[in-house]
Design brief:
- This protein is α/β, with parallel strands linked by helices.
- The chain has one domain: TIM Barrel (Alpha-Beta Barrel), CATH 3.20.20.
- Helices cover 38% and strands 16% of the residues.
- It is built from eleven helices and eleven strands.
- The protein has helices at residues 13-25, 50-60, 78-91, 107-110, 119-136, 175-184, 202-222, 227-230, 243-247, 265-270, 279-288; strands at 3-6, 30-33, 65-71, 96-100, 141-146, 149-155, 168-171, 187-190, 234-236, 258-259, 297-299.
- The strands form two sheets. A nine-stranded mixed beta sheet has the order 10-9-8-7-4-3-2-1-11, with helices on one face. The chain has a two-stranded antiparallel ribbon with strand order 5-6.
- Helix 3 crosses helix 5 and helix 6 (175-184) packs across helix 7 (202-222).
- The radius of gyration is 18 Å and the shape is globular.
C-alpha cells in the first residue's frame, strides 16, 4: 500500500512550493490537485490553475508522482490538453497521472456561458474526450472527425516520457463509465455510491464499493482485459485503507490495491486507521472548508 495526498490549488506559490516539497520529502507516492476553475466554498477565494500548479510542482519535487483528480470536458479540449499533459510529463521526468471524469453541473459547467450538459451528454463527451486524448498521446499526428471533439493534423511531438502514454485514472461508477475505464484506464476513481445516506455504515459502504469492483471486473472481461494486469490499483476519494477496510474489497477482487482519501495528510502520516464509509466524504469536506488545513490523503500503488 502506498500513500498519496491531495493538495488543493489554493496556495500562492511562495507558500505552495513548500507544501509540494513537503509531499515529496514526506514520502508520499503521489500528489494530486483538483482540476476545476473554482470549487464549492472556494469559489470566492484563491484558486489557481491545475496545470500551471503541477508544472511548478514538477520543478520543486524529485520523486513524488503528480496528477489531476480529475480533469473533465467541462472546460478542457483534447488537443490543447494533450499538449499540456505531454509538457507536464517532460517537466516531471515522467511522473504524471491524468485523472479523467465526466464533470458535474457545478461552476465549471456554466462558467463559459453555456447551459450545463445532461448526464448523458457528459458521459458522451467523456468517452469522446478520452478516445481522442488517448490517440493524441500515443500518435505523433492525429486527424479525428468523430464525436464531440475534432483534431486536424494535430501534432504531439515528441510525445510523453512515459510509454505508451501517461496513465489515465478514470472516474466511473455507472455502466458506461466503467466500460470506458475498462477500455482506456490504468486506474479507476470512485467516490463510493452517492445513493447511500450520509449515515451509511462502513459495512454498507464496503458492500457498495465491492459491487462497483465486480462491475469493473465484468467490464474488463468484456473488453478482453485481465483486471489484475489492467487494474493493479483503484482510487477512491471517499475512503481509506486500514486492514479491515481493505478486506472488504480485496477478497472479491483481483484488483491488488486501493487509493483512498479521508483524513488530513498530517493525521494519516501518523496513523492509517479509518473506515470505508460515506462519513469520509464529510471528513474531506471539512478539510476543504479550511484553506490552511492539510488536504485529504489518497493511497495507491503505481508500478
Amino acid at each position: 500500500m502506498r500513500v498519496s495526498t491531495v493538495i488543493l490549488p489554493i496556495y500562492p506559490w511562495r507558500e505552495g512550493r513548500e507544501v509540494w516539497r513537503a509531499a515529496d520529502d514526506l514520502g508520499f507516492h503521489a500528489a494530486y490537485t483538483y482540476d476545476h476553475l473554482s470549487w464549492r466554498s472556494f469559489r470566492d477565494g484563491p484558486w489557481f490553475g491545475a496545470v500551471p500548479t503541477l508544472a511548478a510542482a514538477a520543478g520543486v519535487t524529485e520523486r513524488v508522482r503528480l496528477g489531476t483528480l480529475v480533469s473533465s470536458p467541462n472546460f478542457r479540449e483534447p488537443v490543447t490538453f494533450a499538449k499540456e499533459v505531454m509538457t507536464l510529463d517532460d517537466l516531471s521526468g515522467g511522473r504524471v497521472t491524468v485523472g479523467l471524469g465526466a464533470g458535474t453541473t457545478g461552476f465549471d459547467a456554466t462558467v463559459l456561458g453555456g447551459e450545463p450538459w445532461s448526464a448523458r451528454e457528459r458521459a458522451d463527451r467523456l468517452r469522446d474526450f478520452t478516445v481522442l486524448l488517448d490517440r493524441l498521446l500515443t500518435e505523433p499526428a492525429v486527424t479525428h472527425d468523430e464525436g464531440h471533439y475534432r483534431a486536424h493534423e494535430a501534432r504531439t511531438i515528441p510525445g510523453p516520457v512515459q510509454s505508451p502514454r501517461v496513465p489515465f485514472a478514470i472516474a466511473a461508477t455507472g455502466p458506461r463509465g466503467l466500460r470506458l475505464a475498462a477500455r482506456h484506464g490504468q486506474g479507476w476513481v470512485t467516490t463510493g455510491d452517492g445513493r447511500l445516506p450520509d449515515d451509511a455504515t462502513p459495512t454498507q459502504s464496503r458492500a457498495a464499493v465491492r459491487a462497483q469492483v465486480e462491475r469493473l471486473e465484468a467490464a474488463c472481461a468484456d473488453a478482453g482485459r485481465d483486471p489484475a494486469s489492467a487494474y493493479p490499483r483503484a482510487v477512491s476519494t471517499n475512503a481509506s485503507t486500514d486492514a479491515s477496510a481493505g478486506s472488504g474489497v480485496k477478497p472479491v477482487s483481483r484488483i491488488r490495491s486501493t487509493d483512498a482519501a479521508s483524513r488530513p495528510a498530517s493525521a494519516h502520516a501518523a496513523s492509517s486507521r479509518s473506515t470505508w464509509s460515506r462519513t469520509a466524504a464529510r471528513d474531506c469536506a471539512g478539510v476543504a472548508s479550511s484553506p490552511r488545513r492539510p488536504s485529504p490523503v489518497v493511497t495507491h500503488a503505481w508500478p
